[in-house]
Design goal:
Helix content: 10-25%
Number of helices: 12
Mean pLDDT: 83
Distance between the termini: 90 Å
Number of strands: 31
Strand content: 25-35%
């Protein structure tokens, strides 16, 4: 007897022995074999089913198919002459899975979403490859790998010899790596994790979901359940087992805006972005991106920006982009509060998948006008908002140089140089212009600080300059004075924290310097998406290097809620004389420091007795420099 024949004979004995050809088999024997090999059969059904139904629905459908493999209203079944009970059940399960459309009567799992444990890079790659094949090919591949069948045997079970040939070629191409991945927990619907999906709805409606429906998994050896705490603000979604339960992870339900919505809405922000890229119809890629977002494998390199939550989508997000750049497939989602970027290698290799999540709530015409698609060692590619009519690249360190035109194709920029890792000899910035359909000739600057959204740069000029009104807010940093200020203050950008949304340079005071020349006092304020700000204050003379006057984090200083400000530096003139210089914002009416007191909002003390400074406002408020309070 051949080795395979002997193995089959032993296997048949282990499964209760072969039944006589054409003879009836008691249903109790069939049930015993099904229970003994339940996990194997459910895995085969799960692998055969189409992935476009979502992992939760796919898990439940796989269990239902196996449980319904038992004939109804019969005491005995008849099997073929060359079949044992397990072979008969296996063929019945695979063919039921191949013919499965929308299954009715699937047990509901109220309040939970179920999915197998996420795997690593190899599992993601195999999942992507299998999703690109037809169900008979997936079934044949699973039978070859998991059941040890030949091409002819797998074709006999599926009834599709052409699919079996394709599966054999796939098996040869993937080799042992594919076999290991297929046997992992990524494709085991009997070892599942669970997440709640409707806690807020049930709490609001005063109803409790029935978790007892988990009896559908009673035949499994293990049920591993994890119940992470949902985000407090996560929107409710339908209960699992009801229509729309898997909508959040179903690429067919992704929200897609019309291409021209931005030109006909009062809400010009990320909600008006259409879906762009050449892979927006690739449901396999979009489904993987949603699943990794929902439950990333340990091998996925994940970055969560400050203030953002790591939870998966609570409802179908908006698709902004799906395409391929520089051998990476990239997907961008927006769920109303967060931007999520998923990337994976477009070919085989050791590169890992990545997932980046960042806040984006409240973004508008400017801070919602560009998103980072891909960032390399020296350059980045950006996706620009549909309302951007012109784009250029300028160097903040060279304010007199006009911006160079930037090539944009399908909303995607050419590679844009990144700021240097050290120093600030150059500092690239995007200069964008909005379409006249939403605002006339609106130019603004963005710069890359390592976030998913480039930071918006603004400028607030000296009090009394031009026709600026008292207490005016920052303006776009595209004018001559703004560019001159940013040519110096851009060197403060590398020291800023992460999660920056916008950076403003406020020239709050000017001062005649001892020995000649003038100095401008500036506060560089970086606002985060969370709200708290960071400030760096300094004085830049007409000639010579700037002097730092202080810094602070988690402060309202230099914002519209913190416009009372004082700062000081130790300064030496051309002859080497030492001075204490101090300056305050417009509201300051007097200064004390270095042992002297002066009216107005500037102070210069030669050879000061100390460097402590205090300011007074017209309302009697006393101020000290940031960092000394």
């Amino acid at each position: 007897m051949s080795e395979r024949g002997e193995r089959k004979r032993r296997g048949a004995q282990d499964r209760g022995g072969p039944e006589p050809s054409g003879r009836p088999v008691p249903l109790e024997r069939v049930e015993a074999v099904l229970i003994e090999h339940y996990a194997r059969l459910v895995r085969l059904a799960y692998l055969t089913l189409s992935g476009d139904r979502g992992r939760h629905r796919r898990v439940l459908d796989a269990h239902r198919i196996v449980q319904r493999a038992m004939p109804r209203l019969k005491r005995r079944v008849r099997i073929g002459a060359d079949e044992d009970v397990y072979d008969w059940l296996r063929t019945r399960v695979v063919r039921a899975a191949l013919g499965a459309g929308t299954l009715r009567g699937v047990p509901a799992v109220l309040g939970l979403r179920l999915f197998p444990r996420a795997g690593g890079v190899a599992e993601l790659d195999l999942d992507r490859r299998l999703a690109a094949t037809e169900p008979p090919t997936r079934a044949a591949y699973a039978l070859m790998v998991l059941e040890g069948m030949s091409e002819a045997e797998a074709g006999g079970v599926t009834g599709d010899l052409a699919a079996a040939r394709t599966a054999r070629l796939l098996h040869e191409r993937l080799g042992a790596e594919g076999e290991r991945a297929l046997a992992s927990g990524e494709f085991d619907p009997c070892v599942v994790q669970a997440t709640p999906d409707d806690l807020l709805r049930r709490r609001r409606d005063g109803r409790l979901a029935a978790a007892g429906a988990l009896v559908v998994l009673a035949g499994c050896a293990v049920l591993a359940v994890q119940l992470p705490r949902p985000a407090p603000s996560a929107p409710a979604v339908p209960a699992a087992g009801q229509p729309g339960a898997s909508a959040a992870l179903d690429p067919r339900h992704l929200v897609r805006a019309d291409a021209d919505l931005w030109a006909d809405t009062s809400r010009v922000d990320l909600t008006a972005w259409p879906a762009r890229g050449d892979l927006v119809a690739d449901d396999s890629l979009l489904g993987r991106a949603l699943r990794v977002w929902d439950h990333p494998a340990p091998s996925v390199r994940r970055t969560i920006a400050p203030g953002a939550t790591a939870e998966g989508p609570a409802r179908s997000p908006r698709l902004l982009y799906a395409g391929e750049l520089q051998k990476r497939r990239i997907v961008l989602f927006h769920d109303g509060a967060r931007i999520v970027r998923y990337t994976e290698p477009s070919g085989a290799g050791d590169q890992e998948a990545t997932l980046d999540v960042a806040l984006a709530d409240g973004s508008g015409v400017t801070d919602g006008s560009a998103l980072t698609l891909l960032r390399g060692a020296t350059s980045a590619r950006y996706l620009l908002a549909p309302w951007i009519s012109a784009a250029g690249l300028r160097d903040l360190r060279d304010p007199d140089h006009l911006p160079e035109p930037l090539r944009v194709t399908g909303g995607v920029t050419q590679p844009v140089p990144l700021p240097p890792e050290k120093g600030c000899g150059t500092w690239p910035a995007l200069q964008l212009r909005s379409s006249s359909k939403i605002v006339e000739n609106h130019r603004f600057l963005l710069t890359d600080l390592g976030e998913l959204s480039p930071a918006h740069l603004t400028y607030q000029p000296l009090p009394g300059s031009g026709d600026r009104k008292r207490g005016a807010r920052p303006v776009e940093a595209t004018g001559s004075a703004a560019l001159t200020a940013w040519s110096t203050t851009s060197c403060e950008l590398p020291r800023l924290d992460s999660g920056i949304r916008a950076v403003n340079t406020w020239d709050f005071a000017g001062q005649q310097l001892p020995g000649g020349g003038r100095g401008t006092w500036s506060c560089v304020r970086a606002d985060t998406w969370q709200g708290p700000g960071q400030v760096v204050i300094g004085m830049r003379p007409d000639s010579g290097r700037p002097l730092e006057a202080g810094a602070a984090r988690h402060t309202a200083d230099c914002s519209r809620f913190g416009q009372h400000l004082v700062a000081s530096v130790v300064y030496r003139d051309g002859d080497g004389n030492r001075y204490l210089l101090a300056a305050g914002s417009r509201s300051v009416t007097g200064l004390t420091g270095g042992g002297k007191t002066a009216s107005g909002h500037t102070l210069a003390v030669r050879n000061p007795a100390n460097t402590t400074v205090e300011a007074r406002t017209a309302t009697g408020l006393r101020l000290s420099p940031p960092g000394t309070r």
